[in-house]
Amino acid sequence: MRLAAAFLFFVSACSPTAWSQTSAPVAPSGSKPAFDKAAFEAAIRYYEVLVAGVAVKIDDPKPSKSLPGFSEVTVHLSFGGESQDELYYVSADGQTVIPAAAGAVPAFNLGGNLFQINLDKLDLNNQPSFGPSDAPVTIVEFGDLECPSCRAEAPILRGLIPSAYPGKVRVVFKDFPLESIHPWARAASVAARCVFHQNQDAFWKIYDWFYDTQDQITPEVLTSKVLDWAGKNGIDVVQLGRCIETKATDAEVARNLADAHALNLRGTPTLFVNGRKIGGVEWSALQQIVDLELSRQTKAH
């Protein structure tokens, strides 16, 4: 349970399935304490997306009984009469932090990007994208072209993001077809990537088309409908048909699926905003994250 109006959270809608005791960090005599509460609070506020009105009280580190080499730090949060406690494990040098909450980033470093562990697993080479390559914010979508919730999210990514943040956000698509519940999703990913290899900009046209015509597609008619669409949109139909028939892009889809599994993704849509994992289709929540990232980067410069 999150504090109402104080924390931001998402739930992906399309899903096939709904650590001996050690001493607390000790700094060498005369040096700065290993555990810096001010730095820790700043990191937690950013990590948890806490609004300014949330009061944060941080306990002193205590030896962890479950995670060797780490101490436990309890953070007490309060807002509007509600309260919540969160547990974190902190390394002896005070730099590595492991949130105890299930589904959280496995670990982050206070001296670096809190979501670097995710960024290291996000291969963005040869992926469809729009927006400047040097944009201060990158949104990576793991999507399924047969997923109704992805369809609901598409207008946010395709329309509201570029309109609200012109030149400031890059959107990248990575395939995550949920084959166990969506029978034509992988074939759609293969076909869309075939289009991408012919014309990168046209990928986003077929992306939109798949969502617009989702209810009319079945495994049996997918290829014929895609080829009909291609003929009306300047795509070489013969080349596209051959690519679809031979599943020439399936290995690329498989690599994106492997990335999704490495990131422990369970459903779609799942987004990564500058490495921060979120899911869902709520515009106001996504807007809050983008604004936070833009503000953070402005302060850094």
Descriptive account of the structure:
- This protein is of the alpha+beta class.
- The protein is built from nine helices and eleven strands.
- Strands 1, 2, 3, 4, 5 and 6 form a six-stranded antiparallel β-sheet that branches. Strands 7-9-8-10-11 form a five-stranded mixed β-sheet.
- A hairpin with a 2-residue loop joins strand 3 and strand 4.
- The chain is elongated.
Q: How is this structure best summarized?
A:
With 301 residues, the protein is α+β, with helices and mostly antiparallel strands.
Walk me through the topology.
Blueprint: H1 37-48, E1 55-58, E2 62-63, E3 70-79, E4 82-91, E5 96-99, E6 108-109, H2 116-119, E7 129-130, E8 137-143, H3 148-164, E9 169-175, H4 185-198, H5 200-212, H6 222-231, H7 237-245, H8 250-262, E10 270-273, E11 276-279, H9 283-300
Parallel strand pairs: 8-9
Antiparallel strand pairs: 1-3, 2-3, 3-4, 4-5, 5-6, 7-9, 8-10, 10-11
* Series of H and E elements: HEEEEEEHEEHEHHHHHEEH
CATH class of the largest domain: Alpha Beta
Global outline = elongated
CATH level-two architecture of the largest domain = 3-Layer(aba) Sandwich
Radius of gyration: 22 Å
Unreliably modeled segments: 4-11, 18-31
Look at the structure and give the mean pLDDT. 89
CATH topology of the largest domain: Glutaredoxin
Strand residues, percent: 15-25%
- Tell me the major beta sheet: 6 strands, antiparallel
Helix tally equals: 9
Query: How many structural domains?
Result: 2
